[in-house]
Amino acid sequence: MAMNNCVTRKDIPATIISSKEDLVKNDINIKEELPVEHSNHLLEIRNLLKNDRFKTLDMVDCLKKLCIDHHFHEEIESILKMLYTGISNASVYKHDQSLYEVSRYFRILRQEGYYVPADVFSFIKKNDGRFKGEIAQDVKGLMALYEASQLSIGELILEEAVVFSSNGLKEMIPFLNEDEVIMVKGTLEYSYQRTSSTFMVKKFIKDYVGTTMSELAKLELAKVQSLHRTEVDKISRWWKDLGLAKELKLARNEPLKWYLWPMASLTDPSLSEQRIELTKPIALIFVIDDIFDVYGSLDELIIFTEAVNRWDSNSLDRLPYHQRICIQALYDITHEISGKIYKKYGFNPMEYLKNTWINLCEAFLVEAKWFASGHLPIAEDYLKNGIVSSGAQVVIVHMFFLLGGGTSKESASIIDENQGITSCLSKILRLWDDLGSAKDENQDGHDGSYMTYYMKENEDCSMQDAREHVMEMISDTWKQLNKECLFQNQFSTTFTKACVNLARMVPIMYNYDENHSLPLLKDYINSMF
């Protein structure tokens, strides 16, 4: 039901979640950071950004891929504004520019929230509307076009471009050398827009080996890995002291896995406190989900939901001990986080945080009633409720306030009034989760799945057809998310990027292989620790 109900009561977590000692042993071999060397790299890159204007876009792209762009925020913003102004004045796109160059400009600017019209690609089409034949032989250009097409908000030319570029690249694979095949397959499987940058950082360090930026990225990675281990240690101690794992032995006990969500979304090293605090509500989402799935009878779950609605302890004596302490932990942690936000930003978001928990438990209860009665909802109704029960809204609202998004009633209200990004992320999460549920033979059938209900309504639909339908829905939702990030977005850049990073993390957390394990997640953990 919640952010990852596919791995409840399975052996997988034990194989991918290492102890602190294992994390230290698995750390990559990078020398300790030398402050002077670090400072020299920063200075050299700043000088290049200021003085070599013809290479600045390449550098901006490189800095972001290497996850060291936070050091150069002002310089990058200045460069992007200059480039966008140039595009608006029609001075950037010239007839002699290559498909690769145009695609790169388009991708980078759209990723950073600058709207570039899709008709900049009109030059790759003939008068009859077909793509020019010569671009089908341009491997570099096709890869860049494919990456650019992932920023589509539904434009026809980009819809056509993603099909044309992906088919063209696949057809060329037999004729490419080994290095080219690796690059093409990597582009098709892990497009930059839909893949966590932290997941790819080691690959990009190798790609840019020998550059000052690569050397700085190595130092930064070592520093960040050490920081992540410290944060995991704090989270593990907090979770142990909380005591829920002792009382709820069948519930998930995966503090490292819960921490991966904030780690991937809040990538700036300075956001350590926010990562730690955000992990706490994520942990509670999983625990409450397991209470609804495993521990509670329907009568108990109704009382549980009522207690969350009232947000008081008066009715808790009607619940079993393990449910009482869970609700008490929910009360205490929410008040604690609200207090920290108030102390830092001068606004108490208690009502907003409380309402997200009420909405979540009510959505869980709807599902519990469905399954207790044997009622099978139609796919549309299941998905509407499942978007809420994904738990994404709880995470997003907490993250919004932890990042200082609401400092008054007026600024806080935008998180309720602008649900576009939240809705898109919740839908992507729910659909990927259900893909994993359908593929996982160990599921006990209590959670349901959009695919299950969709296939019941479409009797001639095979499992493969249903999967393709869901993947198309995910792709369409990504287009809507792209649009939300470009237009009428009242949120801060930090918050918006954090939400996109959460969406990018979803496939890593849910992409099961044929052995019902999560190889991408295992690779990610090994890479980041």
From TrEMBL:
Report the superkingdom from the record: Eukaryota
Protein name from the UniProt record: Uncharacterized protein
Q: Which organism's genome codes for this protein?
A: Arctium lappa
Source taxonomy lineage? Eukaryota, Viridiplantae, Streptophyta, Embryophyta, Tracheophyta
